[in-house]
Amino acid sequence: xxxxxxxxxWLDPTTLISxxxxxxxxxxxxxxxxxLIGFFLPGDxxxxxxxxxxxxxxxxxxxxxLVCALIVLAAVAGDQVGYLFGRKVxxxxxxxPDSRLFKQENVEKAAAFFDRHGPKAIVxxxxxxxxxxxxxxxxxxxxxxxxxxxVYNVVGGVLWGAGVTVLGYFLGQIPFVRDNIEAILIxxxxxxxxxxxVELLRARRTAQRAA
Length: 211
What we know:
This protein has helices at 13-34, 43-56, 64-88, 90-94, 104-117, 120-125, 131-141, 146-171, 175-179, 181-210. By secondary structure, it is mainly α. The N and C termini lie far apart (55 Å).
């Protein structure tokens, strides 16, 4: 099988899966979904590759339904940990005067973002690399309603965790997709970033009008 890595060789999804198997997939999904240290991990390409390897029968001998169910559980659990971390520890970090990343101003912006976009922000963030790692933490810091967060966390976990894996399972069996896997994954990432770019441009235009 060809390398599917979009970054360093040690982050190559095929290498990770062949070394750690399903347990490695679940650990990475959990970390990338809500732990600050997981933002650099290859979530999308890992899930797509997992689906492809399930279809191929190599390294992941478990059935597709079981793999998808466990991935969804890991994704939802990761976001839950991120939310609770943000709710318990986040406010203190944001109040630190010497912190460039965690500022009270960012908490207010996060709260305004959720007020403007509603719970769908939790679902959309799942498909945006890096953003999906920090979104549950910011949701916890901004005190988003917990029940609402749980519902949309589960929806996002199912659509992303099971959706990308199943996509890899079926599309990965097509020769053209297998031969151009890296280009396709890059295109998926670029498309997923479009909502963030649109939001940034809209916020910038609003700020210019206010000025």
